[in-house]
Structure to design on (142 residues):
């Protein structure tokens, strides 16, 4: 009984320490609903009634982290995680130099007249000299 109580105290201390670390680690995800508390609730719902799983998590080296990982398997949480990953991918792609068209089919306004290679090829030399700065800027986008 004494050993059992000591083990229980040790597991509880380990859990408390682990939970503080997890709260700190995932605090920056609060605005997107993936902070420790939100994911923990999903995890608790997933493992409710599965005593062996609860014990495995509680007795592990880092129970709060395992609980968080279990919560990430919840379908709603998975969707939020997918959205976050997609946003990161889109942010990474945002720096590309691509000529985008608006909904009306108009080309993006660069602050100068954008000339395509075909337009430049069809110009007379005198014409090209008049708009050389715009052609140079356009060439950077090719």
């Amino acid at each position: 009984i004494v050993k059992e109580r000591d083990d229980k105290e040790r597991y509880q201390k380990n859990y408390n320490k682990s939970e503080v670390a997890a709260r700190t680690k995932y605090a920056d995800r609060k605005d997107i609903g993936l902070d420790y508390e939100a994911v923990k609730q999903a995890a608790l719902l997933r493992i409710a009634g599965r005593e062996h799983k609860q014990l495995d998590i509680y007795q592990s080296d880092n129970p709060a982290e395992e609980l968080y990982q279990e919560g990430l398997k919840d379908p709603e949480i998975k969707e939020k995680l997918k959205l976050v990953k997609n946003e990161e991918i889109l942010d990474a792609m945002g720096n590309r130099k691509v000529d985008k068209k608006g909904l009306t089919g108009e080309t993006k306004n660069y602050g100068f007249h954008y000339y395509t290679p075909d337009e430049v090829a069809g110009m007379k030399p005198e014409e090209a000299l008049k708009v050389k700065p715009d052609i140079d800027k356009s060439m950077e986008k090719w």
Observations:
- Helices lie at 2-25, 36-47, 51-58, 63-71, 75-93, 117-121, 125-130, 132-141.
- Residues 2-93 form one domain.
